[in-house]
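@channel anyone free to eyeball this complex?
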Amino acid sequence: MAEKIQENLISLCKRRGFIFQTSEIYGGLQSFYDYGPLGVELKRNIKKLWWKEMVQNHKEIVGLDSSILMHPKTWQASGHLEGFTDPLVECKRCHKRFKADELTKDRCPECGGALTNSKDFNLMFKTFMGSTEDSASEVYLRPETAQGIFVNFKNVLQTSRLKIPFGVAQIGKAFRNEITSGNFIFRIKEFEQMELEYFVNPKNASKIHEKWQKKRLNWYIDLGINKENIRLKKHSKDQLAHYAKACSDVEYNFPFGWSEIEGIANRQDFDLTQHSKFSHQDLVYLDPETGEKFAPHIIEPSAGVERPLLAFLIDAYEEMGGETGKKKEVVLRLDKRLSPIKVAIFPLIKKEPLQKIAKEIFNDLKSAWMCQYDETGSIGKRYRRQDEIGTPYCITVDFDSLDDDSVTIRDRDTREQERIKIKELKLILRQRLDF
Ligand code: ATP
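replying in thread with the prediction:
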């Protein structure tokens, strides 16, 4: 059942223009995806809401946009050059590759062939800068946005007059040459991350870590994820990254099992200490009040955009009807803040003057919200089209509108229809859509 829902959702994503396989006309490129007209809106809404929650709502948190290619020493200091590896084995018969630590048997799970010995495989994509492909010009596509924040620690501190505790947030692309990929957009090689690095006094690190875990879990619940489908999962000692003191993942109950959508780690002073060592720059913090000098510890809530997006879609997806003789209907019960299109406007039939009034309403509302004008097909069909992309409100201009200057507004979830004066529409929608 769960697999079927996932299959249907993936097909909806393609059919309605949320997500396409990249370079599809050339047969695609495995584990890379493109976001269509609706997908790009959903992605932007997630990023906007994250930024509002993490930056705008905090006087002690600022934003940053650092470059994707960084000085190669960054990756020496961070440990990614040495340690960002997966143990890779290959089947000698079918040449499929697997992560050795995910295999339960010592033969190929696909064809039963013999496997090679395991080799460490670095997950960073390497490229070359300049005209020669020699090792002096090697650069890496960043595998996380966090390092851009660490190397700018001093710049931000000196220019923004922040005092500990403070945070720097960033949203941007990250790249990982994952050995195994799949489950649609769950594990991909190019994705976006939304990361906060929160610099704290070591004395307070554990308490602040606890606080961020709760805050991050609640963010998803507030945005409509069903409480039963989301949880915090604490890493056991042997699951912890070597630099982390503690880490909890926000996990979602995907059709393929509970899996991480965000990690919240206590990274201690590892990052700043390492960058101090490799750059020979002093990255300690001097407390202006106590005169205390210390390397700040870092609490890091780190989420992707795509995994939460998939979780939001799966959680919102609902199929209704489908009994014999009845057509199956899909409603995407996305939180209104996430919905790609907020309002759809229809003339009851494709005739003037209904079209003119509907277009005027569209033009009036479009500066405030993403709207869609649709005049094709029956009204029922048009409602269903909007339901399956999660549009919270549909407005219909009918013949009565000519006499009462009113329209019908239909609610996606209750399916109730109300009559509202055209001149009051904007105000009413503002009350329902602006938060
Ligand atoms: P996993 O164990 O599943 O590989 P991770 O622990 O390596 O994930 P982190 O390094 O903690 O992931 O990255 C933080 C977040 O970035 C993840 O919670 C996830 O949302 C996102 N992310 C990481 N790798 C990928 C990927 N290959 N595809 C999509 N999102 C990813």
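from a first look: The mean pLDDT is 93.
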